[in-house]
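Handout for the seminar on molecular recognition.
Each group receives one record of this type.
Step one: identify the two inputs.
Step two: read the structure output and locate the region that could contact 4'-deoxy-4'-aminopyridoxal-5'-phosphate.
Step three: write two sentences on what you found, then compare them with the reference statements printed after the record.
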Amino acid sequence: MKFAILNSQIIERSEARVDVEDRGYQFGDGVYEVIRVYNGRMFTANEHLNRFVKSSASIGITLPYTIEQLTQLLEELKEKNNLQLGTIYLQITRGVAPRNHPFPTEEIVPTLVAYTKEVGRPVESLATGVTTILTEDIRWLRCDIKSLNLLANLLAKQKAAEEGCFEAIQHRGQDVTEGSSSNIFIVKNGTVMTHQSDNLILKGITKDVILDLCLKNNIRVQERTFTLDELAQADEVFLASTTAEVMPIIEIDGKKAGDGQPGPVTRKLQELFVQEIERQCGNL
Ligand code: PMP
């Protein structure tokens, strides 16, 4: 039997249901997180929960839980579901109210939901790399909020899936922003580059771990906007996310990315990333 969190209760997953007038269901009026679990331990849990609080605050949802309470709840859920290798999905919506665009004026209780999923590491893709397509970034101007409104991301990912590709690399005109569910990195002459964390991208937790690993290991790194030309001329390209880790990109729109194979800097970062997982969660 599997369990889920509904508000502050851990209940049977099949019993976890929300009202049809939940604003998350009707408007996507909420935010979420996905936290990786390795060896039964959460990886970068604090970073994810801090971003969860920040995303909530930025749309005016006050979390009725402290980070310590959330951590405790998620730990309990993980134990009850005996999750060793997988993810915890966590979301909060503004709550249930008669359908109307403005925020309800009366106090409503935000709806918190969490559940777990068993997900292996994508070891094969990590070794061989993945293919991608390019697509115009048609999202709004607050991509820094990890909002439930993912329709533009879904359309981008669907386009990639229809082409048999793993990810869609989004760009605003000439400027590359991020993947539909990942951050994008290029390597040129030994320097790692990725879009600065502003309103046009999600500040990925994996991205931040990678930037930190670069700094600690004397790998030159720049957080700045790069163009489609720079992407095409890059020595190496990779993407990063909670579930995909440090994933080499070997093809973009049917053309080779770099020399069409996972590059040496990408490989080095994969190795450092695994060491960081093992430092926090034990040997893989
Ligand atoms: N950008 C977008 C749009 C995403 O959906 C994700 C994955 N949630 C990321 C970047 C990567 O973020 P993280 O490393 O925190 O998973």
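Reference statements: The chain has two domains: 3-118, 123-281. The CA atoms of residues 48 and 223 lie 21 Å apart.
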